[in-house]
């Protein structure tokens, strides 16, 4: 059984989260600079069995595309090209950053750690992944 790798794609930083092999728990993984995100994924897939990818799709409050929608879709297309045997799924990522900030506060994370943008990105990826798991539970 493979894991599901979630991606919170950004033009500067990209956050990652992953499930356990049984696909029950979503855990934050890492945040990397976007220019090395594809290589990070390739390295991860080489050492772990990844079943599919989930990408947060940036949409506005009105449900329409934002400036970040096309770059996320373009990254998804690169994923499909590099990993043709793996499905790529999109999840609406509205409010994930706010939810990530709230979860850091609830978890007792210090203010200086909450200001680290990479922490928000990887926690957002975990929220995206958890949302996908809930939408696709059997």
Report on this structure.
The chain is an alpha/beta fold and 138 residues long. It has a single domain (3-135), classed as 2-Layer Sandwich (Nucleotidyltransferase, domain 5). The chain has helices at 37-47, 69-82, 96-106, 111-114, 117-135; strands at residues 3-8, 13-19, 26-33, 50-57, 87-92. It has a five-stranded mixed beta sheet, sandwiched between helices. α3 (96-106) packs across α5. The longest helix has 19 residues, at 117-135. It is globular and about 40 Å long.
Q: Any chance you could write out the topology, listing elements then pairs?
A:
Blueprint: E1 3-8, E2 13-19, E3 26-33, H1 37-47, E4 50-57, H2 69-82, E5 87-92, H3 96-106, H4 111-114, H5 117-135
Parallel strand pairs: 1-4, 4-5
Antiparallel strand pairs: 1-2, 2-3
Helix pairs in contact: 3-5
Question: How far apart lie the N and C ends?
Answer: 16 Å
Report the portion of residues in β strands: 25-35%
Mind telling me the CATH superfamily name?
YqgF/RNase H-like domain
Strand order of the largest sheet: 3-2-1-4-5
Query: Oligomeric status of the shown chains?
Result: single chain
Helical proportion? 40-55%
Largest sheet data: 5 strands, mixed
Question: What's the short story on this structure?
Answer:
The protein has 5 helices and 5 strands.
Summary tags:
138 residues; 43% helix; 5-stranded mixed beta sheet; alpha/beta; Nucleotidyltransferase, domain 5; 5 helices
């Amino acid at each position: 059984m493979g894991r599901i790798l979630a991606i919170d794609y950004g033009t500067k930083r990209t956050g990652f989260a992953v499930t356990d092999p049984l696909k029950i728990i979503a855990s934050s993984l890492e945040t990397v600079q976007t220019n090395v995100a594809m290589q990070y994924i390739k390295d991860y897939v080489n050492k772990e069995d990844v079943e599919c990818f989930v990408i947060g799709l940036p949409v506005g409050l009105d449900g329409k595309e934002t400036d970040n929608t096309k770059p996320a879709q373009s990254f998804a297309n690169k994923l499909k090209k590099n990993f043709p045997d793996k499905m790529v799924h999109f999840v609406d990522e509205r409010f994930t950053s706010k939810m990530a900030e709230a979860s850091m506060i609830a978890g007792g994370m210090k203010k200086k750690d909450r200001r680290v943008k990479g922490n928000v990105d990887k926690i957002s990826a975990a929220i995206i992944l958890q949302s996908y798991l809930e939408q696709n539970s059997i």
